[in-house]
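Memo to structure team: turn this sequence into structure tokens by end of day. - J.P.
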Amino acid sequence: MTRPWSSRLRLGAVAVAVASTAVAGGLALPGAAVAAPGAEVAAEAADGVVVPFRADARLVSSGPTGFLSTVGDTHYWTRYADGVETPLPRKGAGAYRASAQSDVLVWNEGMRYFVHDLARGVDAEPVVIDSAYELRGVNGSTLVMRDGADGVHLVSRAPGGDVVDRAVGGLPAGAVRHVYSTAPGAFAVQTAGTEFLKDRLSVVDVATGAVTATYDVHSHTDTAQVSAEYVAWRPGPDSTMVADRSGGAPVRWSSWGLLLPGGWMTVGDGFGLSPLGGGETVYALDSARQVVVGGDGTALVHGGTLADGVGLFRVSVGADGKPDVRKVADTGERLDLTVKSETVPTVVDFDREPRQEMSWGFNHRDVSLTVELTHTATGRKTTLRSWWAPDEFEAHVAWDGLSEKYFGAPNGAHTWKMTTESVFGTSVTRSGALTVVRGTRQRDFTDNGVADVLVRDAAGKLSSYEVSQLQALGRDYDCWEEGCRPVLGATTPTTLGTGWNTYTLMASPGNAAGGAADDIVGRDRDGVLWLHRSEQGKLVPRTKVGGGWQVYNKIVGGSDLDGDGRGDLLATDTSGVLWLYTSTGSATRPFDARKRIGGGWQQYNLLVAPGNVAGATGGDLLARDRDGVLWMYLGKGDGTFTARRKVGGGWQKYTHVAPAGLNSRGVADLFATGPAGSAIHYGLGNTSTPFAAASKVPVNGDSTTYKSVF
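Reply from structure team:
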């Protein structure tokens, strides 16, 4: 079974979440094309100046004089020089579009486009351009637009001047699929090719409006970017192609990241820079959340180090091959892993909520954790693991009331311990307590909410086998989620006691004595019937029911035949008469005097009273004849049965058939076992086909281990 685990990527979703210049709403601009900044780019801030950055903000873009960030639906422009942060007015559906490595923002109102250079001040008047074209991107102060005939235009206007409309020449014929306009001085256009699944990707120079290189790409490509030296695109989610800008043949690259001027690409698993021309990857930060290209051509990373905390860092590689890291903005956060919230129930009721969740909030995304729960009374442990959530600051575990070995979680007090996996050299441990409470379950002898099958071996040891284990035994459920349990290779029975070989017949009549859990009765060699009551997962000392039971050759219990809510007992004598003992709810006198149901039962060699089989109100009875045919007797609720109905043949292969509790339909399942193998027959709740076909269980019911099964 393949199980995907969190990759522990510290640089999350570089290609989309951190590199897009489409700020919000409108047409999404996938990828992050970057190019070498022009010589006129000014220094972004004086050396050593560190400005504030909101801890819950998302970095969007960076220009020479400031950076753009968002918190929810609000956009903020922050100046590098003095850290002044200005919220920008909301622009509705038009939103803002940022130009990479630039201080320019664009928004529109219908066919009017407002080009705002924030280097001139937030309150400066924008340049207004009226155009009927469709906006596809922003490159500096130039709008990259498409007309109705799939022509691409470069539209600009100087303050107080006329609108300049330049058509891009040299594009291959075909519909324009995407425009990747996220680098100053260049952008890429993807056009549909004439051949099936083949498109063309063209690099356009903004200054001349001409195509400088064209590449063949797969039509599934929907992300591309450009730098001064290279072009990169993704033909699929698991592949990256990189080519130089001169039109050279593309080569496959190991991962997808953000192209940087100078021939570098960002890579994951920590924040690193990898040279596209070959060489060692340079790692600079301990954590990275978003990355864009700054106005000076270096990587601007929202991340952190253990030494300097969290903020915005300019990252580049020096001539000596070592990273140059400068902090330019600070969130006030430390990178050490800390717990910011905790949600753990103190009382767990699986009857009300079958899936119980626990969660912890952290100051980092994608934190994996393990929760170990220990039942105080028995020491039985349950281990839960969080599922992969790379974009979330919360880590969750879910508990379905079962342990990793498919045991039911016992009622009562538990302690829990949460431990995180090491993140950047730090980890966190929390602990606490909770209590599991739930109502009683039919045939639950271990007080853990799961039905049991009782087995007595030849040595007289009585054990309970969890039905949940029998159902899961040897099965691979092809689970692809975090926290999946391993395949169960063997059952782990719970020993209820020894010395049970003193009994020649045994049965479980349900809660005959009025307790919360089901009881067990056994007939000894002298014909005396004894009652063993079950309380909180343990059997209390036996009490004597009475003598004279040596006249019976079969005893079976579990079905409520008279409708009083308690299980009753049935017995057949050697002459084939079936007798009913209704329960009283008293531990001192658990059964009323017997009532004769009828004769002719000597034709059957096996009886099972599993409870409700076909969905009616009364408890039911199953009987197997000498030919292996199983018959069903529906209980009327007054201690009598309807005429028998045939279930099916082939049941002679089993030496034992026992109740396996009630399923989600509220009807009984059966566990059947014999030397040739075992199976669970799931109840369907109807009279014509009461059970589904056998679901095999990899257990051979040998006569030594499985002396009695009930």
